[in-house]
Amino acid sequence: MFHDRLDAARQLAAALAHHRGSHPLVLAIPRGAVPMAAHLAQALGGELDIVLVRKLPAPYSDEFAVGAVDESGWVYVAPHANLAGADADYLARVRREQLAEIARRRAAYTPGRTAASARGRTVIVVDDGLATGATMLAALHAVRQRAPAHLVCAVPVGSRESVALVRPAADELVCLLTPADFQAVGQFYAHFPQVEDTEVVRALRDAAPAAGPEGPGASP
Predict the structure, then answer these.
(1) Phi-psi label, residue 203: left if phi above 0, alpha if psi -120 to 50, beta otherwise
(2) DSSP string spanning 148-189?
(3) How far is CA 215 from each of CA 59, 109, 119, rounded to the nearest angstrom?
């Protein structure tokens, strides 16, 4: 159990202390992971930015992911998608909807600046937990295309199935808890409020990451 996201970030920082001094790029999956990643970037002497991905929700459950899409449009479809009622037409529709939300977030969160460069660097992708692992898998895929030297997945808690899913996509995986009774990420936090857009914008503005060469709107 974590008290809140900051408590989880402090514990992750301790587990990732071996990356201190390498100026890692710490990428948050918005919105919940942004305050955590801001703390990690500061603790590790790194640079903060975001990686924009969105889950594809099941037809009758917004919380249950049947896949995920990254900013380039690449889609991961979970093996259980069809059983959950997500046929090809449904997936195409929600993909368009989520790409529109990604575009909105890009414009709101990082207006007028480029993504921080990941090439040749240690990159740590952070989320507040793994339920299905779909969004993290999409995030790791997106970052891998940008040629990092070492790609790290860092989460406080995850289901055993989700950890097994994402492990092959990262060079290093740090997950502090993999409980057998996992039901939802929020189950393992005493305080788990929603993070609003204003908090994301403030954290990114305060961190003021340097512009990289990968171009405006490049997928972090």
Answers:
(1) alpha
(2) -SEEEEEEEEB-HHHHHHHGGG-SEEEEEE--TT---GGGGB
(3) 35, 16, 13
Q: Report the amino acid identity of residue 179.
A: P
Query: Rounded to the nearest 5 degrees, what angle is found at the Cα of 53, between the Cα atoms of 125 and 25?
Result: 25
pTM for the predicted model, two decimal places: 0.91
pLDDT digits 0-9 by tens, 181-208: 999 999 999 999 999 999 999 999 988 6
pLDDT tens for residues 93-112?
Answer: 999 999 999 999 999 999 98
Tell me how far apart the alpha carbons of residues 104 and 84 are, in angstroms, rounded to a whole number: 28
**How far apart, in whole angstroms, are the C-alpha atoms of residue 200 and residue 93?**
27
Distance of CA 216 to the CA centre of its chain: 20
Spatial CA neighbour of 214 closest among 26, 44, 49, 41: 49
Bridge partners of 124, per DSSP, are 26, 152
Asked whether the beta carbons of 12 and 40 are under 8 A apart, the reply is: yes
Closest CA to 219 of 21, 52, 31: 52
Q: Which two tokens stand for residue 20?
A: 């201190």
| Cα distance between residue 117 and residue 146, in whole Å | 8
Q: Rounded CA gap, 202 and 181, in Å?
A: 35
